[in-house]
Amino acid sequence: MFLVGALTNLLYPPACLLCRAPLPDDRGAAGILCEACRRRMPRIEAPVCSRCGVGLRGSFDAQLLCSMCRATPLAFDLARSPWWYDGSAQEAIRQFKYARRWRIGRLLALEMAAAARSALPLDDVDAVLPVPLHWLKRRLKGFHPPAYLTHVIASALNKPYLSSALRRVRWTATQTALGWHQRFRNVDRAFAARGASVAGRSVLLVDDVLTSGATADACARTLKAAGARRVFLLTAARTPIR
Q1: Is pLDDT of 57 > 80?
Q2: pTM for this structure?
Q3: Domain boundaries, the chain
Q4: 168-185: buried (b, 16+ CB within 10 Å) or exposed (e) per residue?
Q5: Which of 68, 107, 145, 190 is paired with 2 by a 20 to 30 Å CA distance?
Q6: Is the N-terminal amide bond of 47 cis, ω within 30° of 0?
Q7: Domain 42-238 CATH class label
């Protein structure tokens, strides 16, 4: 086995999956990115909003709440993300979503699971589920990134995975092309939940990026209307509040 690995490294030298820089042979199973790319994945550091997890620069209040959570809190109870959607974190997510780089996706999911362990009340989480795609869009894409992340996260956290508890019942425009308020209108009543799967349970909702929070808000409202007790949100990255 050692000789096979050595020969493979000789013929196909290990390289960073983002910048193609050479990687050391002793990098371990998780070493798919070089140190430089890892450093360019900007972590969300404390202090953060105690509810939505956005970074609050220079805030040292006892109760940390961002302006959005003070003014118009969204329907989910708690949200966390390990990274800002910038630098190598943005590139890693894009490579995973659009080039189907599975190993990058697994790395993202494991880091998300670590963030959940440190910041979410996992003892109160009964199951994990992804933000769903419309069935036709899923068929056209042939790939559902949040579902892949959720599979890995559920396994890492030893939580049940709910594949069909939440459905997208209405085709919606891509959120990235819409303004802030348009995003909320776009996903209004776009989801349906199976009450038998979520009633009386606290669930962890998984997505790749949190921007306006419109999609997560619509999902959380739908889940709670179906009887879910609490809805926590976990994303790989989030964009700053503008």
Answers
A1: no
A2: 0.90
A3: 1-39, 42-238
A4: beeebeebeebeeeebbe
A5: 107
A6: yes
A7: alpha beta
